[in-house]
Amino acid sequence: MRYEFRTPRRLLSSLVIDPRTLREDPEAVRASQRARGEDEGVVDKLLGLDSRRRSAIAAADKLRAEQKSLGKLIPKASGEEKAGLLATAKDLSAQVKTAEAEQNESSEEFEQLFRTLPNLVHPSSPIGGEDDFSVLKHVGEPTKLGFTPRDHLELMEGLGAVDMERGAKVSGSRFYFLTGVGAQLQLGLLNMAIAQALENGFVPMITPSLVRPEIMAGTGFLGAHSAEVYRMRDDDMYLVGTSEVPLAGYHADEILDLNDGAKRYAGWSSCYRREAGSYGKDTRGIIRVHQFDKVEMFVYTRPEDAEAEHERLLGWEEQMLAKIEVPYRVIDTATGDLGTSAHRKFDCEAWIPTQETYRELTSTSNCTTFQARRLSVRYRDENGKPQIAATLNGTLATTRWIVAILENHQLEDGSVRVPEALRPFVGGREVLTPIGR
RNA sequence: GGAAGCGUGGCAGAGCGGCCGAAUGCACUCGCCUUGAAAGCGAGCGUGGGGCAACCCACCGGGGGUUCAAAUCCCUCCGCUUCCGCCA
């Protein structure tokens, strides 16, 4: 199949499904906007634009129908009759042109504003900002080391696992080289994630890191957080911040067969983030960097199954966290801290001894139909009718996990015990010891 | 980077200004036939939007243009294929 994704018209028509819920239940959209701390005035504005758009389409349809039936008469007519018909047809043609211009303009205006609308929030999501999350549970007790812990950077440097200076020399701040056992640790961790994903029925994928603008926009990353994204100006492409993006685009503009259950993918990719606006935050080590690697779970499913799938994704993340034996808590992210595309989001945060706090290791979002609608991903229901699918994603492992592993399993002499489950993936090593010893 | 060609429904593949939302084959669904199946026969079978409905409108890679009228002609962008060059 020849495939060209750039199909604004189709995208537009797929968007038209959501306006229906907007019309039928504007109050729900207003409430969600309020919960997110977003402008709820857009709802009325959208309704106005929508009705203008709809009447413009109706008017154009009517004129086009007239034009069509008149056009059928022309080849049969002759002489004076034909001349007359041609004259009317010409006049009608001009009218159609005007009507179509109005249709396009009003549709575009509507679509543009509509695209800025974030996903509806889940009714149980706690209302508020970044700090207003609710803690769903704690697993394990904060690690008690009995000596003054070294932070992950100190540990890594001791182990010869990282080279920050040369990272900065080659690429600038927030770049690094994983060296020796650091590289080994990362590969082992990600391989362990892939192994688990395979066990759980996921299809492993290695995805493109550069994507087209439509794909980036379709996943919701060009909205409020577009400053976070690297853009290739000369080629009009974007570096992805997660394989969620190419995996969401993977089935763009397709009608999926979900009769045998959800489609589950585990994407392995490097992730790129500008970290604009985080100056001075987490400047030490590899907690917040411009490039890291990640294995991400991504699921296409029916909207009615999405919430249950979200729980499953959280379960798989916890299964993975158990393997590295670190204490963590699970939080339900507050409405103001959800991404544009998320309906609900759970984060797992691991205890970091030197920071004496929990830091995010995984994040799973239920995007419901938000991304699928923008990317036109559908499935057939029992009646064979295409419906918009739901998408979800969740982290299985990232470079940052190394921080939690090292800090929680460090020994007094700066060596680090390797969690048992990870050992087969790092050449059977049980303890990592500082170099030069 | 240069040259040529191509892009039509789930797939294959006709159509190359009006009778085309689009022949035909395969696949698929339903029915008949059969002890069952295959074969055969009959019917159906793209997507989006509007309407209670009959039905109407849009879509032949995207966008624009010519024309009363475009899958069909022109421009442009994207993608694919082949050849040459270049780099691995």
User: What overall form do the CA principal axes indicate?
Assistant: elongated
Oligomer category: single chain
Residue windows where pLDDT falls under 50 for at least 5 positions: 1-17
Largest sheet: 8 strands, mixed
Mean pLDDT reading? 89
Indicate the structural class.
alpha+beta
The number of distinct helices, counting runs of at least 4 residues, comes to 13
Portion of residues in beta strands equals 15-25%
Percentage of residues in helical conformation: 40-55%
Q: Reading side by side through the largest sheet, how are the strands ordered? A: 1-11-12-13-16-10-9-4
Number of strands: 18
Gyration radius from CA atoms, angstroms: 27 Å
Terminal residue distance: 60 Å
Write a structural description.
The structure is a single chain. Helix 2 (17-24) packs across helix 3 and helix 4 (41-73) packs antiparallel against helix 5. Helices cover 41% and strands 21% of the residues. The radius of gyration is 27 Å and the shape is elongated. A hairpin with a 5-residue loop joins strand 14 (377-380) and strand 15 (386-388). Residues 1-17 have low confidence and may be disordered. The chain has 437 residues and is an alpha+beta fold. It has helices at residues 8-15, 17-24, 26-36, 41-73, 79-115, 152-159, 164-171, 181-199, 213-218, 244-250, 306-324, 370-375, 401-408; strands at residues 134-139, 162-163, 177-178, 203-206, 210-211, 230-232, 237-239, 254-256, 263-272, 291-301, 328-332, 344-352, 357-366, 377-380, 386-388, 390-398, 416-417, 431-432. The strands form five sheets. Strands 1-11-12-13-16-10-9-4 form an eight-stranded mixed sheet, sandwiched between helices. Strands 5-7-6 form a three-stranded antiparallel sheet. It has a three-stranded mixed sheet with strand order 8-14-15. The structure holds one RNA strand of 88 nucleotides.
